[in-house]
Each structure stands twice: as C-alpha cells, then as structure tokens.
Structure prediction request, 378 residues.
Amino acid sequence: MKNIVITGGAGFIGSHVVRLFVNKYPEYNIINLDKLTYAGNLANLKDIEDKPNYKFVKMDICDFEAFYQLMQDEKVDGIIHLAAESHVDRSIKDPFTFARTNVMGTLSLLQAAKLYWESLPEKYEGKRFYHISTDEVYGALEMTHPEGIEPPFTTTASSSEHHLAYGTEFFYETTKYNPHSPYSAAKASSDHFVRAYHDTYGMPTIVTNCSNNYGPYQFPEKLIPLFINNIRHRKPLPVYGKGENVRDWLYVEDHARAIDMIFHNGKIAETYNIGGFNEWKNIDLIKVMIKTVDRLLGNPEGSSEELITYVTDRAGHDLRYAIDSTKLQKELGWEPSLQFEEGIEKTVRWYLDNQEWMDNITSGEYEKYYDDMYRMNK
Ligand code: NAD
Ligand code: DAU
Prediction:
C-alpha cells in the first residue's frame, strides 16, 4: 500500500497515528483528511508538517463528491478512519451532529471507497478500510464479584493475570452491542455499516474498539487534560456523580502502535479489542493526577484536592468499561508498553511543559463552552 488517507488526523489520537506513519513509512504518502472542527488542531502536527510524504487536506467526511474525487486523484489504497465527534457530553446536548458525522460521514467514505476500488482492474486487492471505534459501543459493565469480594480484586478472567479489576465481566470482541449515549449509538451504527460493506460488497474492512486513551494533544474537554489545566489555574475539578465510575486507560502511543500493527497484519473482516488492562475509578485517578501535578508545580502534595467539586452526574453515565485485549495480544503480539504511573507522569509533564498549546485552545470559544457545561452540571 502506498497512498493512505488518515481521517481525523488533526485530532488527539489521529495526530499520533499520522506522526507514527509519516516517520516510520517514508515510502507511503500520508494524506491527513480533517474538517478542523473545534477538536482539530494542526498545531498537533507541527513537527512533521514539512515532511515530503505528508499532506493535509481540509475536508468534511460527509462531502461524498469531494472524497470520491480525492480517492481518484490520490489513487488511495488504504483508509484509516478516525474522524468523529468524540465527546459524550457534547453528544447529549447535540445528538444530530454525532449522527451526521459518525454515521453519515462513515457511510460516505465507505461508498466513495467502494465506487473507486471497484472501478480498478485489481478491485479490492491490496486495499484496506480500517475503522477506529470505541469500547463504549458495548455498553456498561457491573462492579460485582459473585463471592461478594470488594473491588478492586486480582482477576484471572483475562490474559493479564495480575491486573486489578472492578468486576468479573469484560468486553470481548463477541460482546453484544448495547450503546447508551448518542455518541456510542452513533459509533455503533458506523461499526455496523463498516461490517455491512464487507459482508455485502466484499470490501476489505477491519474494526477495532479501544478503551479510554490519554496522553499529549488531547482536547481539554476530556477528563485528564481538563483537570490538569484546572489544577494549574486553581479552578474547580467537576467530578460527575460520586466519582465511582471505572474506565480502562491506555497511553495514546500504545493505541497508535496497535493501529499500525493491525492495519498491516490484522485479518480482513476481523474485530480487535484494544485496551490497557488498566482500570481506575475516576476519583482514584483524579487523586493520582492531583498528586503528580502538585509535585511538579511545587505545591504541597495533595493540596489541590480542595478543588474537587462533586457535580450532577452525566446523564446515562456508564458505570464501568473494561476491555479484554487477549485476542490482539495473542494473534499480533501487541501489548501496552507503559505502566500507568509512568504514562500519567509523562502526560502531566507534557501538559505543564506545553502551556502555550493549552492556552491557545482555552482562550477561545471553548472556554465559554466548558464554563457553560460546568454551570449545567452544578
Ligand atoms: P478528537 O475529537 O480529538 O478528534 C476528532 C478529529 O476528527 C478532529 O481533528 C476533528 O476535526 C475531526 N473531525 C470531526 N468531524 C469531522 C468531519 N465531519 N470531517 C472530517 N473531520 C472531522 O477525537 P479522538 O479522541 O482523537 O478520537 C478519534 C477516534 O478514535 C474517534 O473515532 C473516536 O470515536 C475513537 N476513539 C477515541 C477514544 C478516546 O479515548 N479518545 C477511545 C477509543 C476510540
Ligand atoms: O472508552 C473510550 C471513550 O473514552 C472514547 O470513545 C471517547 O471518545 C472518549 O471521550 C472517552 O469517553 P469518556 O466519556 O469515558 O471520557 P471523558 O474524558 O469524557 O470522561 C472520563 C470519565 O470521567 C467519565 O466517567 C466521566 C468523568 N468525568 C469527565 C469529565 C469531562 C468527570 O467526572 N468530570 C468531567 O469533567
């Protein structure tokens, strides 16, 4: 494969995937296709923007005609599709935008790719449509143990025998879809369309479902960058509900490495789960973040805990996510490279060292938006 479109490459995860591919594969032409919504930021890619194998195209994935033309002009062989509306809270306020981008946008890409690839003599030979999705499509897991043992407990239910879990159930590739938010419902729908294009037209597709990512360049509406920034500015830390919800955190570069492996060596029509075997209750994670930020800023350790403010819970807030990524580990030999303590230290340092990046975002419209969100939740 030579000509590869990465959609959503100006966003958080997309920018890490673009960087990895541009640096690792000088023989590929990497086309970053992004509409530059509020979440797209070309500053995320400053270090690679002048590389000869990189090109940025500003385009809406819903623009079928424009994308079909691009497929022909660039003779596109592979698509790695990350562009999406990605924030659950926004989906609760504005579900239509999520249906438009995540469902219709994905369908538009699929149909344009189909028409172009089917027009070629080799048809789908050597082509690939790789769709990046989320563990949220599976719904929420319980936090119980059949013998009444208090979580977290060590589990042997997965390939990672020593990992601490908050329940005995995990999301597997075979878990039935049960999305709860407009965001996850739209992502679920897009996953179904991708699989339908394989089953109906024979398109070589792959879908992956990943857990919560963290690391540099994440938009500060998401828990980790929002809280690091608020601690720096001595602003309240709005914890939804009691802070009891559990998420499974993965360092973003580990996700990008998995995407690289799966794009090149994954089996067509398969689904792979990607996760860190790294479950944290929000409130515990927040305390680790506070400790780290306080230490690095020279504040008395833990003193920023006074900023914790419990606010009204997110509507339909999923209790627990926990991915079982055994299939990916066994079949392709992938595993997370960073321990969480190392990853969170790296992440906090990055945000504190890159305050200009953060300030450029928070000084604009977004500041008003998240103030509104905060008032709404109080
Ligand atoms: P993000 O919000 O940081 O970035 C999304 C990018 O898509 C932005 O650059 C934005 O400009 C672009 N985009 C949005 N609408 C577009 C449109 N109509 N046309 C073209 N570009 C458009 O998102 P992220 O957190 O990097 O997530 C990327 C993908 O990974 C999403 O598909 C998301 O569902 C999935 N995912 C995210 C996580 C996570 O923890 N962040 C975990 C699992 C899966
Ligand atoms: O699981 C993968 C998903 O992870 C991705 O598909 C989504 O795109 C990504 O946004 C993320 O979804 P979450 O809703 O889990 O992430 P968020 O950072 O918004 O919230 C993490 C947890 O923290 C969640 O339980 C809600 C809580 N939270 C979040 C915010 C922004 C708070 O308590 N306070 C907050 O201000």
